[in-house]
Amino acid sequence: MKARKYRTAPRKDVAPLTLDSFSSLENLQKLAKYGEVVEASSSGILLKFKRDDFVDKDLRAHLTIDHLVGHNVYFNIHEMNLEISGVIARTKFLGKNEGFIIAIDYSADAPEYWRECLMDLLPTN
């Protein structure tokens, strides 16, 4: 029998928040020029990108961006003027017109009390 993974923190649907940029911390390369926050928890954030949002032609040309898993990234939430860094935990292709979902684990880069405060400050639908 397969072991089941359980979430470390409950997810919160957030009001539409936009990203100014999405970049690699390893080489400071800009990966995407725009994105949206879909869901958040005190351990991670779920981001959505359309194919055209990616700067690199290789990211736009493929149906998978799984090679980004494990990369350290940072992004700026425009409406909050807040920069967050973390590690890409997983990616998922949603379809040609929908784009991609990228899950960011930011629990190692921020103390727990800060992450809990962020959850209280994020606007809901």
Description:
- The protein is mainly beta and 125 residues long.
- 12% of the residues lie in helices and 44% in strands.
- The chain has 2 helices and 7 strands, in the order ββββαβββα.
- β6 and β7 (99-105) form a beta hairpin.
- The longest helix is centred in the last third of the chain and has 10 residues, at 112-121.
- The model has no long low-confidence stretch (mean pLDDT 88).
Relevant terms:
single chain, mainly beta, 6-stranded antiparallel barrel, 2 helices, 44% strand, globular
Put the structure in a nutshell:
This protein has 125 residues and is mainly β. Helices cover 12% and strands 44% of the residues. Strand 6 (82-95) and strand 7 (99-105) form a beta hairpin.
Number of helices: 2
Q: Given the helix and strand composition, which structural class is it? A: mainly beta
Roughly how many Å is the radius of gyration? 14 Å
Query: Ends: how far apart?
Result: 38 Å
Strand content: 35-45%
> Strand order of the main beta sheet, please?
1-3-4-7-6-5
Q: How helical, in percent, are the residues? A: 10-25%
Order of helices and strands: EEEEHEEEH
Rounded mean pLDDT score: 88
